[in-house]
Amino acid sequence: MEPKTYFIRTYGCQMNELDTEIMAGQLEKRGLVPSSNEENADLLIFNTCSIRDLAERKVMGKLGRIGRGQKNHAIIGVTGCMAMAKKDALFRKFPHLDFVMGTNNITELGAIVDEVLYTKRPVFKTDDHFEENLDYLIAKRDNKLKAHVSIIRGCDKFCTYCVVPYTRGQEVSRPPESIVEECRRLVDAGYKEITLLGQNVNSYGKDKPEWNCFFHDLLYKIDQIPGMERIRFMTSHPIDITVELMQAVRDLPSLCEFVHFPIQAGSSRILKKMHRIYTKEQYLEKVELLRHYVPNVSLGTDIIVGFPTETEEEFLETFEVMKQIRYSIAFIYAYSPRKGTPAIRWKDDIPEEVKQDRLQRLMDLQNEIANEERQHLLGQTFEVLVERHNKDGKMLKGRTRCWKKVIFEGSEDLIGTLQQVKVHSYGHQTFIGELASPLHSLSLSCR
Length: 447
Hints:
There is one protein chain. The protein is of the alpha/beta class. It folds into three domains: 5-125, Rossmann fold (3-Layer(aba) Sandwich), CATH 3.40.50; 136-376, tm_1862 like domain (pyruvate-formate lyase- activating enzyme, Alpha-Beta Horseshoe), CATH 3.80.30; 378-440, CATH 2.40.50.140. The protein is 33% helix and 21% strand. The protein has 13 helices and 19 strands. The chain has helices at residues 14-29, 53-65, 81-86, 89-93, 109-119, 164-167, 176-188, 215-223, 243-251, 268-274, 280-293, 312-325, 352-377, and strands spanning 5-10, 33-34, 43-48, 75-80, 99-101, 123-125, 146-150, 152-153, 172-173, 193-197, 230-234, 258-260, 298-305, 329-334, 381-389, 396-400, 405-408, 418-427, 430-435. The strands form five sheets. The chain has a six-stranded parallel β-sheet with strand order 2-1-3-4-5-6, sandwiched between helices. The model is unreliable at 439-445 (pLDDT under 50).
């Protein structure tokens, strides 16, 4: 029976969220409507993540609880990175699955559903290479102010702890004309903020040198779109952050002054073992250069503690780097081995209690740095994109150009606009402010 309703549960990164929006658009073009819950859906899709062990265990537990007896006519599929990592082993573990579709087969969702319907047999599609023929304009977006736009898929860096090159394949850039057209349509539809996505956005265009359009060139093209308010991008690899990109952050009015600049570790030996392709000294030089060009830039980072053979002294190098750079945002994780990565061949020799101790010390340091930064920013005025009411519905909520959460009193008609807000206090990680008078309409700092 042709499915009439669908439900997609998404795990993982922004790229997975965008893939879910594209799949939803494909299904709604086919005539399906979204279900409010998974129990009543005719088509149930789990769009999965394999980057962290916890994310994978959540999916495995969920799939284990779902059986065909729960709803005999439901079609159940697994997509995303876990589909690529586990492949046909998912069918052996979960015989109630109807299809497993890899990240590079997203264009084939309709055909896969048809094959399940007509053959009554499980379908398995996990190609290693992505063909750039995806209709991005079909994406079904729930957020009407902010949108993700894919510019490059895959990764060629092969960090030893990461499964992405094996689950997303090699880097494939999307034609610049297609990206600019999608961004133009989004602006025309009223979108205020666009985040350009890729496993490594800085590599954009390197696989297509004949285009003569690299990441900074693309940013200049998008900034020229009439009505473009804000551009963000993620994620970056430090080795590919160029002077031209730094100058674009400085010069382009729509480009937000926030750069995710993941170091992963503060020890050059550990960085080499991770295959990060840069030393601590090279990383620090790039940070110094970026801050030279963009003095008010905010930086984010990713850090892994407890990588195989990491000593206490090497951990302290990471600790000192964090104290020196003072990131605005830090995502900190304890290392967990991932099957299919080069690091799996090394003994996971750091005891879990040591990992957790190092994790907590870094988190405490980051909280201290963030609190000091918040104290410093009190009294300043920021441009805020007003997104919605806060949880209690009494105040408006939005973010600054550099990703700070702000709430303030204001009328509902301000939602979807850019406002100048002067912050006077904060609670936890959220600033509290008030609309600034016209005399104070210029931000003292983007941060």
